[in-house]
């Protein structure tokens, strides 16, 4: 299991402002990027390697 104790979570700029579909990202850790639902901060977290995360974000920006 990944150690996320020092993760600094920030809300995605693409999240809605009405409290709905909100995603938080922690990209301050050296070897992983965490993604979680902001409405469930103690719930499950998806974990990606930094290279995979950058590729994912790059792909999203292309569409």
Radius of gyration: 12 Å
DSSP strand tally: 4
Tell me roughly what share of residues is in helical segments: 10-25%
Shape annotation = flat
Please give the count of helices: 1
Taken as a percent bin, the fraction of beta residues is 15-25%
- H/E topology pattern: EEEEH
Sequence stretches where pLDDT stays below 50 over 5 or more residues: none
- Category from helices, strands and their pairing: alpha+beta
Gap from first CA to last CA: 32 Å
Mean pLDDT across all residues, rounded? 89
Strands of the largest sheet, in order across it?
1-2-3-4
Query: What is the count of structural domains?
Result: 1
The biggest beta sheet is recorded as:
4 strands, antiparallel
Descriptive labels:
alpha+beta
Can you walk me through this structure?
By secondary structure, this protein is of the alpha+beta class. It has one domain. About 20% of the residues lie in helices and about 20% in strands. It has one helix spanning about 50-60; strands spanning about 10, 25, 35, 45-50. Strands 1-2-3-4 form a 4-stranded antiparallel sheet. The chain is flat, with a radius of gyration of 12 Å. The termini are far apart.
Quick summary:
The protein has 63 residues and is of the alpha+beta class. The chain is built from one helix and four strands; from the N terminus they run E-E-E-E-H. It has a four-stranded antiparallel sheet.
Give the SSE layout.
Layout: E1 10-11, E2 23-26, E3 33-37, E4 46-48, H1 50-61
Antiparallel strand pairs: 1-2, 2-3, 3-4
């Amino acid at each position: 299991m990944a150690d996320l104790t020092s993760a600094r979570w920030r809300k995605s700029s693409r999240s809605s402002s009405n409290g709905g579909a909100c995603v938080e990202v922690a990209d301050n850790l050296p070897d992983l990027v965490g993604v979680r639902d902001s409405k469930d901060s103690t719930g499950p977290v998806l974990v990606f390697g930094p290279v995979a995360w950058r590729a994912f974000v790059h792909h999203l920006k292309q569409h």
